[in-house]
Specification:
Helix content is 45%, strand content 17%. It is built from 17 helices and 13 strands. It has helices spanning 5-14, 31-42, 60-63, 67-78, 98-110, 123-129, 149-155, 159-171, 177-193, 197-206, 209-229, 236-250, 268-280, 313-320, 324-328, 335-352, 392-401; strands at 21-24, 45-50, 87-92, 115-120, 140-143, 284-290, 301-310, 358-361, 367-374, 377-383, 406-410, 415-417, 420-424. The strands form two sheets. It has an eight-stranded mixed sheet, sandwiched between helices. A hairpin with a 5-residue loop joins strand 8 and strand 9. Helix 10 packs antiparallel against helix 11. The longest helix has 21 residues, at 209-229. The chain starts with a helix and ends in a 7-residue tail after the last strand.
Length: 431
């Protein structure tokens, strides 16, 4: 299956100022597969080391972590010669070996001709909580997310439709209605399947939603296991409480995160470490409210007002135990959840595209789902789950801040009207 990360990795390989690369992301997003596939296609050989499946590997790094010492030993362990620029060295689950992470500093300084990519699922958590000597300034970093809507459509062999969607986005021209309907159906399938590569592959091969739900439940169980394994003892229960509560918060009209919904009398001081753990692990993301629409937006965020979205739509549906058909046909029984689910979907697509997202509220309660900086401009984005696109809040925002244009995501076809770029939900990846 095609992954956009391959383009980034090719640029990294050719860069004269390349440093060891840390590829981070939540479990099961396809880090190991992407790195090994890249290595097979672009190097003479790949020397792969996994600190989880080979616990004794860590002993190699206990005495000396200089490249001159490590390379002969690693060559012996791998059973192949590690050659400068021709071998890709891969350290997987590196969060389990602090000294291996520190060694990247010396590879950068003393042996930059060796090509190294390391992967880790809970690196953010490990580095934040442990006594890690992180190689600041000596590594390149990239986050891998689940597959986005475009990668999902390509996995479904919809190359031609994907290209047409991109063209319609560029020209604000409606897609022929039959294709628009087909793309909306693919969007609803994506909501159920999500972007975890294993689930997408199973769906491409079988179209079996029961099988996919079983896989999603297994991934969720793995996340719960990580919460116990890589967390402070007194934080485990709180972290699970927060994670379980996210779907409840997304079902409300105001999706701003409220501690009191986790438990009666809940406060920030009690749950902020749990939220930080979930964010650092890549399982969720926080979207903060901005108090002023000025650059840089980060300077004007309200640290006490935020929303939480999960990193994968399929896992969201599995966690909520939503039946596939209820989502595919958007039945009335899930009306309360449709808005939050569409918002979560858009946040995932924007994050994968590299945007830092925020939201905005007026003193009188008008709310814009997302504010992003696109091509140097601050752009408001309104999200509607259906084709009902009346948006009073967007009018309030546009009258107040007069952006060059706004984006409205809904079930409506492409178009441009009254300063608003109309974009169907399936085309969020184009932004």
């Amino acid at each position: 299956m095609y992954r956009k990360i391959m383009g980034f990795l090719e640029v990294w390989k050719k860069n004269e100022h390349r440093k060891p690369l840390i590829l981070q992301g939540a479990r099961q997003v396809g880090k190991t597969y992407a790195v090994l596939e890249f290595g097979r296609n672009h190097y003479e050989n790949v020397a792969y080391f996994n600190f989880e499946t080979s616990p004794k590997l860590s002993e190699t790094f206990e005495e000396d972590i200089s490249p001159n010492y490590l390379i002969p030993i690693l060559s012996h362990i791998a059973g192949q010669t590690i050659v400068r620029e021709k071998t890709l060295i891969v350290f997987d689950e590196i969060q389990l070996c602090e000294r291996a992470l520190t060694s990247l500093k010396y590879f950068c300084e003393e042996a930059p001709d060796y090509h190294i990519i390391v992967a880790g699922s809970l690196l953010g958590v490990a580095v934040n909580r442990a006594r890690f000597s992180f190689p600041v300034g000596k590594v390149d970093m990239k986050t891998l997310y689940p597959m986005d809507m475009e990668e999902f459509m390509l996995a479904m062999s919809e190359e031609a439709l994907t290209e047409q969607i991109k063209e319609c986005f560029r020209t604000d021209t409606p897609l022929p209605s039959a294709l628009h309907n087909a793309a909306m159906q693919l969007y609803r399938q994506y909501l159920v399947v999500g972007g975890m590569p294993e689930c997408v592959l199973q769906f491409a091969e079988t179209r079996d939603y029961v099988l996919i739900r079983h896989t999603q439940d297994t991934i969720l169980a793995g996340y719960l296991s990580d919460m116990s394994k890589y967390n402070n003892l007194n934080e485990i229960k709180k972290t699970r409480l927060v994670y379980d509560n996210i779907t409840v918060q997304l079902s409300r009209k105001n999706t701003r995160f409220q501690y009191k919904l986790i438990k009666k009398g809940g406060r920030a001081s009690e749950f902020e470490n749990a939220i930080e753990w979930l964010t650092l692990s890549g399982i969720v993301s926080q979207v903060y409210k901005v108090e002023q629409i000025k650059k840089p937006l980060e300077n004007y965020r309200d640290i006490d007002a935020f929303k939480i979205y999960v990193s994968d739509l399929g896992l969201l549906c599995a966690k909520k135990d939503l039946a596939a058909n209820d989502v595919l046909y958007m039945v009335d029984e899930i009306n309360d959840f449709k808005g939050g689910m569409a918002e979560n979907y858009v946040n995932v697509q924007l994050s994968i595209s590299g945007y830092k997202t925020y939201y905005w509220e007026s003193p009188r309660g008008a709310e814009i789902d997302f504010i992003i900086q696109r091509k140097g401009e601050l752009i408001p984005i309104e999200v509607k789950s259906a084709d009902n696109t009346r948006a009073k809040s967007l009018k309030v925002y546009m009258d107040t801040y007069k952006p060059s244009y706004a984006i409205k995501l809904s079930a409506k076809n492409f178009g441009f009207e009254n300063g608003k770029k109309i974009v169907p939900l399936y085309a969020a990846f184009c932004i």
